[in-house]
Each structure stands twice: as C-alpha cells, then as structure tokens.
C-alpha cells in the first residue's frame, strides 16, 4: 500500500440497492476495478451533483431503468488494501419502476440479474461486502426481508427495542423505520403447529 500524502483523498462512490418486490438487482462487472464481482448499480459522485441525482443517473446509464422511492440507507468506509483504494460509499435504497434492465455499457457489464437477499452470488463487489459485514439482514417468517438498524429503549418503560427497516419494494408509502420489543423480535411464532423464529438471520 502506498503512503498517504496531501494529494491522497478518499473518493466518494454511490451504490444503489434497487429492489423489485424482495429481489436485489446486481450486475457482473467486467471492468478492472472489481472485475468479475457482482455489484449493484453505482458510480462516482460528480462535481456539484446530489447523491439522489447520481443514483438516478447511474442506474439509467448502466441498466437503462427508472427508479423511484429513493432513500438513504447508510455509508461505509471502504479500505481495500488489495487494490490500494479508499472509498466512502453512500448506499441508497430504490424501488424498480419500469423498463427491463439491459446491458448499456458492455465494456463494463457482463449481465444483470435479480437475487434474493438470502441467495446472493459470489464474489460480491468490495463495497457491498463491507455493507453486509456491517449490517445484519433478517427475514420475517412471512418472507419479507429487513435490515437491523439499531437497538434502543422505550422512552417511558425502558424496554429494550429492536429498530429495523424494510428491504422490499412497495407501491405504497412505507414508514422509514419499525420498532418491536427485543423479546418479541427474537421470539417464536406458531406456524401450522410448529414453532419457528419470528425473524431469521440471513447474513
């Protein structure tokens, strides 16, 4: 790894987790950076560009699709010693709106596919690896996927609460976050006479 100097600064990248119902859109990269890894749409934040405009631009330039319900998810600090790169990656959630994903940049992309959160391909693009290492995904027993956001306490009773958000698309407006008592979140429910976990850890 090269030594830092006053000209070295982290770059800002943006990753768009495009959801179609409960599936995530990924493409197989052909470019040298992250070559032959699976990556969401994304790219560099341009000068004086908002992250939201960047997300819309990159998804259209790379896959030719339209998205809506764009919302900020998290940021990761990606220190890749193998490629000697340092990125701050902004992760956004977006719902698939229209147009079948297609390869618009054949020199950079092999193909597009939809994947379930519990069956992601390998290897994954480095920023997505970092994201999954820092964020825990759970599947509700009815099938939907959620991202664990934080643990908290009820403001009056002090009861431990789990705070989480949805990882599926919807035509209706969804609350940004949900909260459920910790003992219920990690509890079991009766499904056809069999006790199963209310939430199952995916990654």
Count of discrete structural domains: 2
Approximately how much beta-strand content do the residues carry? Answer: over 45%
- Overall CATH class of the largest domain: Alpha Beta
What is the succession of H and E elements?
EEEEHEEEHEEEEHEEE
Question: Any idea what the CATH architecture of the largest domain is?
Answer: Alpha-Beta Complex
Q: Which overall shape is indicated by the principal axes computed on the Cα atoms? A: globular
Could you tell me how far the N terminus lies from the C terminus, measured between alpha carbons in angstroms? 30 Å
The gyration radius over C-alpha positions equals 19 Å
Number of helices: 3
**Low-confidence runs:** none
- Total number of beta strands: 14
CATH topology of the largest domain: Nucleoside Triphosphate Pyrophosphohydrolase
**What helical percentage do the residues reach?**
10-25%
At the fourth level of CATH, the homologous superfamily of the largest domain is: Nucleoside Triphosphate Pyrophosphohydrolase
Mean model confidence by pLDDT:
91
| Sheet with the most strands, sense and barrel status | 7 strands, mixed
Structural class: mainly beta
């Amino acid at each position: 790894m090269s030594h830092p100097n006053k000209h070295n600064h982290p770059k800002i990248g943006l990753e768009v987790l495009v959801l179609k119902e409960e599936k995530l859109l990924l493409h197989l990269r052909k470019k040298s950076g992250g070559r032959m890894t699976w990556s969401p749409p994304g790219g560099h934040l341009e000068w004086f560009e908002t992250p939201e405009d960047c997300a819309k631009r990159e998804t259209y330039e790379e896959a030719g699709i339209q998205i809506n319900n764009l919302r900020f998810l998290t940021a990761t600090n990606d220190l890749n010693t193998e490629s000697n790169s340092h990125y701050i990656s902004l992760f956004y959630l977006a719902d698939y709106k229209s147009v079948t994903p297609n390869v618009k940049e054949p020199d950079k992309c092999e193909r597009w596919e939809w994947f379930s959160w519990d069956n992601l391909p390998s290897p994954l693009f480095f920023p997505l690896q970092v994201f999954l290492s820092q964020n825990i995904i759970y599947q509700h027993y009815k099938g939907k996927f959620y991202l664990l956001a934080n643990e908290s306490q009820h403001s009056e009773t002090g009861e431990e609460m789990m705070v989480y958000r949805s990882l599926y698309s919807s035509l209706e407006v969804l609350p940004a976050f949900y909260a459920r008592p910790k003992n219920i979140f990690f509890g079991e429910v009766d499904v056809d006479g069999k006790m199963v976990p209310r939430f199952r850890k995916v990654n």
